Amino acid sequence: VALPVGSLTVPSPNRLFEDPNEDQPAREAGPASSTLPGHLAGREPAAEPVVVYTDGACSGNPGPGGWAWVVPDGPFAAGFDTRTTNQRMELTATLEAVRAFDGPLLIVSDSTYVVHCFRDGWWEKWLRKGWVNSKREPVANREIWEPLIEAVRSRGNVDFRWVKGHSDDRWNDEADRLAVEACNRQVELSG
Q1: In the 3-class helix/strand/coil scheme, how is 104-128 assigned residue by residue?
Q2: CA dihedral of residues 15, 17, 22, 23 (deg, nearest 10)
């Protein structure tokens, strides 16, 4: 017997306070989610996300830079900028990864700048305060943040997880290698 509870319909009064995930495997802790899980958002659980590692590199800060994303045992892409900063390359790598895939996505980054923005909701405060940060200064790199935030918001299926850089994580190391190569050679790479 389904019962209406506010705007929700509960399948049974006996299930009102039960854990909806009790029959599902535990989810790995850590991702900063930009969405509610499917069962909480009123839709079926989404397909498994594509996991994409991103990284940025810069020789000098500012200086020539490179960005890259890589799917474990899958496609990759990298690009460059002639004069940039490491943070701009981290953001660009993330934006390019979000643009490259349509389905659910898990971005794995060693950039706390990127991950904390979504995990801690910095972007929501920036929008509310007219693109000023907690120091009441204009948000740096707004021209990259704006399309990234818009893409993440409009999709509703992008999560973020931080990984420690240069810590022998195979795919973080590969994203770093590609970003450094793009930076040093000032070339675009894909495969």
Answers
A1: CEEEEECCHHHHHHHHCCHHHHHHH
A2: 10
Query: What's the pLDDT at 185?
Result: 97
Distance CA 39, CA 150 (A): 24
Task: Give the other-Cβ count within 10 Å of 81's Cβ.
Answer: 20
The answer, as to whether pTM is greater than 0.70, is: yes
pLDDT in tens, 87-123: 999 999 999 999 999 999 999 999 999 999 999 999 9
What integer best gives the mean pLDDT of the chain?
83
Q: Which residues are catalytic?
A: 55-56, 90, 110, 166, 176
- Whether 91 contacts 114, CB under 8 Å: yes
**Residue of 164, 153, 171, 139 whose CA lies nearest to 50:** 171
Please determine, for residue 186, whether its predicted confidence score (pLDDT) is greater than 80: yes
Handedness of CA 142, 75, 107, 150 (dihedral sign): positive
Cis bond before residue 62 (omega within 30° of 0): yes
> Tokens for 149?
């935030």
Q: In whole angstroms, how far apart are CA 30 and each of 25, 161, 181?
A: 15, 6, 30
DSSP conformation class of 188:
-
On whether the CB atoms of residues 47 and 38 are closer than 8 A, the answer is no
